[in-house]
Amino acid sequence: MADGATTARRSAIYLLDQILGEGRLLPECLAAGALDRLSPEDRARAQRLTLETLRGLERADRLLGGHLQKTPALTVRNALRLGTVELCQGAAAHGVVNSMVEIIGRSRKHGRLKGLVNAVLRKVAAEGPDAWPRMRVPRLPDWLRGPLVEAWGAEAVAGMERAHFAGAPLDLTLKPGASAPGGEVLPTGSIRLHEAGQVSALPGFADGDWWVQDAAAALPARVLNPVPGERVLDLCAAPGGKTMQLAAAGAAVTALDISETRMARLRDNLNRTGLSAELVVGDALEHQGQYDAVLLDAPCSATGTIRRHPDLPQAKDGSEFGGLIELQAQMLARAWGLLKPGGRLVYCTCSLLPDEGEVQIEGVLDFFADMSVDRAALDLPGVDPAWITEEGGLRLRPDYWPERGGMDGFYIACLRKAR
Ligand SMILES: C[S@@+](CC[C@H](N)C(=O)[O-])C[C@H]1O[C@@H](n2cnc3c(N)ncnc32)[C@H](O)[C@@H]1O
């Protein structure tokens, strides 16, 4: 029987095949049960190996290119990539090489290539670990790099790529009055843990004292700044990070999302934290009502979350983004109709593309005569005035706070409706 490390590696190769071959995102593969048969330790290990291989893919391919005369089938290539990343990050050579030879050797389709895997990984083990730290920081694929360089410049994008390669620490949002399980208090109030381990084992998890939420993702609800008792609609709510912030501030929250399964996670999160909200499973474009404030965290490219989701730029090619941009514009218009006179709408996306942020707000301001941007709402602790954009939104990027470990890319704007 295979040991735990080999089981985790075999699963990581399967996940890499799905992401790089089928264009599926890691969360989709996990939701479809890809790792369900593994022990919790092997599951965590398989996910970690997959993420690290994706982060180091460009370097692994460069190293392997020198040892391969022709490109082998994707599964063999992914075994070599995974082995290369592990070897270059200091794993014991005999364990990695034997494991990869066993995995490929047992494959009916690729078994004859186990000699190649053995020979190539032995060469990588000899020279890879020295070469690795001298190689350039892996770049985003051209389909995403091009538009980002156009929007933010080459230097900023290089900073983003450094942040993507480094990965993300674990950020927590605390329930008011609760204490943190250690960590660093960030200028915006979130708690950052650099070595977190298993989240559910951290002090305060079971008591619902906090929830996991990137520091950037915690800002939209702070910008909305609800007053206790206000009726607030969280229009794309699941899994509920922002719903919990709004409810913890005392707002009467209606949380709406189209996805039943994601809403089940929101319900679990509310139960764990002892917070409450009215839950609606439905389409934001069809919802009726009148609210004091609306938070619209619209579905988007999620290009701001690549530090934690390095699968995204590898699995996608940008071809779906046009439909999302159109949906965001429709949702913005719909959200405006759900707002009482004098009310405020906070629009946000975890995207690095101006088309999903700055450009949406410029467009909607031209359309509604009773709409204005509330710049004062962005005047929050820890928010650098340099992050505020021309049209009055807040642009957050992974290359910000490099000494602290970065933040997710986000765009946030607060819109006021005339009385
Ligand atoms: C960025 S996520 C929301 C994250 C959430 N606000 C949080 O803080 O945890 C976007 C959400 O929009 C939902 N969604 C997509 N299309 C929708 C629609 N037409 N109506 C309502 N929700 C929708 C998705 O199911 C997804 O949960």
UniProtKB/TrEMBL annotation:
Under the heading InterPro entries, the entry gives: MeTrfase_RsmB-F_NOP2_cat, MeTrfase_RsmB-F_NOP2_dom, NusB-like_sf, NusB_RsmB_TIM44, RCMT, SAM-dependent_MTases_sf
Kindly give the SUPFAM superfamilies that the UniProt entry links to this protein.
NusB-like (SSF48013), S-adenosyl-L-methionine-dependent methyltransferases (SSF53335)
**Residues the entry annotates as binding S-adenosyl-L-methionine:** C236, A237, A238, P239, G240, G241, K242, D257, D297
Question: What keywords tag this UniProt record?
Answer: Methyltransferase, RNA-binding, S-adenosyl-L-methionine, Transferase
Q: Under the GO molecular function aspect, what terms does this record hold? A: methyltransferase activity
**Which residue numbers delimit the SAM-dependent MTase RsmB/NOP-type domain?**
132-418
Q: Where is the active site?
A: C350 (nucleophile)
Which biological process, per GO, is one annotated for this protein?
Answer: methylation
- Tell me the PANTHER family matching this sequence: NOL1_NOP2_SUN FAMILY PROTEIN _ ANTITERMINATION NUSB DOMAIN-CONTAINING PROTEIN, NOP2 YEAST -RELATED NOL1/NOP2/FMU SUN DOMAIN-CONTAINING
Q: Which family does it belong to?
A: Belongs to the class I-like SAM-binding methyltransferase superfamily. RsmB/NOP family.
Q: What is this protein called?
A: Methyltransferase domain-containing protein
Q: What species does this protein belong to?
A: Ruegeria sediminis
